[in-house]
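[scheduler] slot 2 assigned
[scheduler] job type: sequence-to-structure, two independent chains
[scheduler] chain ordering preserved from manifest
[runner] begin chain α
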Amino acid sequence: QVQLVESGGGLVQSGGSLRLSCATSGFHFSGYFMRWYRQTPGKDREVVAGISDEGNREIYEASVKGRFTISRDNTKSMIFLQMDNLKPEDTGVYYCMTAPLRDPWGQGTQVVVSS
């Protein structure tokens, strides 16, 4: 069965950096576009970044472009999100997911950016 396990979150000051990881299993990882989502209280999950199956195409939500970098390692079935110059509005729970979506969602990893 599909399993997604996010890690790497934490508390960081504004301007700091974090690197999130997502370990996956239970599906043909290298055949899937993958996305990172962010959820904040009272809002739906939003896509912040995506990467193609071969890792040669990336997309970013406008507010994170130039600060976040998504990457993947198909040999380890993992994706990553390098987050630099973090801002308080980046605070939230971050999830990875396949595209198209394959349930279930992982537990997410909490990121808190203090001002």
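[runner] end chain α
[runner] begin chain β
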Amino acid sequence: QVRMVESGGGLVQAGGSLRLSCAASGRTFSNAAMGWFRLAPGKELEFVASISWSSGNTYYADSVKGRFTISRTNAKNTVYLQMNSLKPDDTAIYYCAARVWYSDQAPPPDEYQYAAWGQGTQVTVSS
């Protein structure tokens, strides 16, 4: 059983930065990928970024490309989401998730393939 715990959310002004962390436990991650998703009020779940655990290769949604960076620390089984130049449209609950993945390429957006999810952390960007 994989357990995911997010942290690092909060309130920030537009243009500011936040770094989210997601600590994973309960299994080894040699054949896995991690992803960040977000859920804004009145909207559907949106893919943000993903990373292949073995290679560190990444994939981003167009809406965050150039502003957000996903990374991982193997030793700590932790994945991060560095968010810069935040906009009010980035306001959402952010979730990390894990899936089985065998490729060095980062997985494409597909929330249904992610089997383990964290509880979410709120990010609010004020204008």
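[runner] end chain β
[qc] chain β: The first strand starts at residue 3 and ends at 7.
[scheduler] slot 2 released
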